[in-house]
Amino acid sequence: MVTMHVFRCGNKALVIEQVSHWWVAPDPHSGPVLFVSMQNGQHVTFDRKDAPDGTDGYAIEQGLLTFLERVGRQ
């Protein structure tokens, strides 16, 4: 059985095992945005509109790091 770890932020979700890398970059309209590159070449972005509490990409990245620490992945 394969275990999948899913990180959720608002209405978006990531399967951790499919993440290649991520970075935070500024956006002139919404502030810092978290960009995630997947192993299949797709990209997912998270910004203020995706977070229930309106946090920016840096805060969402910190949530992702906390999640990874909790599930023992990094």
Describe this structure in words.
The protein has one helix at 57-71, and strands at residues 6-9, 12-15, 19-25, 33-38, 43-46. The chain is an alpha+beta fold and 74 residues long. It has one domain (6-71): OB fold (Dihydrolipoamide Acetyltransferase, E2P) (Beta Barrel). A 3-stranded antiparallel β-sheet has the order 3-4-5. A two-stranded antiparallel sheet has the order 1-2. A hairpin with a 4-residue loop joins β4 and β5 (43-46).
Which key terms come to mind for this protein?
74 residues; alpha+beta; OB fold (Dihydrolipoamide Acetyltransferase, E2P); 3-stranded antiparallel β-sheet; two-stranded antiparallel ribbon; 1 helix; 20% helix
